Amino acid sequence: MKSVLTVIGTRPEAIKLAPVLKAIDKNARFTNKVCITGQHTDLLDPFLLNLGIIVDYRFKNYENEGALHQSAAHILEQFGAILTELKPDLVLVQGDTTTAFVAALAAFYARIPVGHVEAGLRTGHLYSPWPEEMHRCLIDRLATYFFAPTDQARNTLLAEGVSPEKVWVVGNTSIDALRLARKYSKLTRDPKSRVIVVTIHRRENHGEPLKEICHALRVIVGRFSDVRIVFFLHPNPAVRKPVTDMLSEVINIDLVEPVDHPSFIQLLDTCGDLQKRIRL
Known about the structure:
Structural class: alpha/beta
Strand content: 15-25%
CATH architecture of the largest domain: 3-Layer(aba) Sandwich
Number of domains: 2
Low-confidence stretches: 273-280
Strand order of the largest sheet: 3-2-1-4-5-6-7
Number of helices: 11
Number of strands: 10
Largest sheet: 7 strands, parallel
Radius of gyration: 20 Å
Distance between the termini: 58 Å
CATH topology of the largest domain: Rossmann fold
CATH class of the largest domain: Alpha Beta
Order of helices and strands: EHEHEHEHEHEHEHEHEHEHH
CATH superfamily of the largest domain: Glycogen Phosphorylase B
Shape: globular
């Protein structure tokens, strides 16, 4: 029996890894432990609880979200004890977060193989997105097994020198997560509603781009009085403050706290063919 340590830092990682965790739990050839690094806490815990995912290891939270080198060092320091104690046969990471990169690096230091879910994605620009593009490249330099979402991602890995027998095209686990989310959905669909759902957090949108997006949302509700915008506020102050300043008092724009993933997917269903019915 092989042991796996699955490492999760953010809610997107948890969402995309949830179907994988379910599959591992059903496979008698593997045992799996889950480690949470604490990049997201308030957003992550409810999701894991709803799916019944047990957390075996939880890192101490790091307060200063903005200092990437400090948060990376904070996470890396805590991996040593866990890897020494558990000695897993595989460390499984997903995507391109600081958590995924640092976990892969810690596993490399401990001479433990790394499996990378969503391997092979590239933009070709190291600063776009930043720092995720570099994280993707570095994780795939450290990884042993590669689970690529597309044939293009596989071809990228092969072009970078990865052995074909170590790459599997498995599709995008986000699709599996959507199917899983529908089983837990709590919201009632209203097919007549005209709703736009907005969620923004990436660093590329911070500053002036975010202000431009907010301005565009104000234009939309000003032009279409029957349209309602539901804007989910990310906890990052770089997003929350400017959005609140520009949109908090705008009619037909609701600024709301994050909800669980199934409810979010159900709300997306209410958007339906809205883009076909609105022409700016």
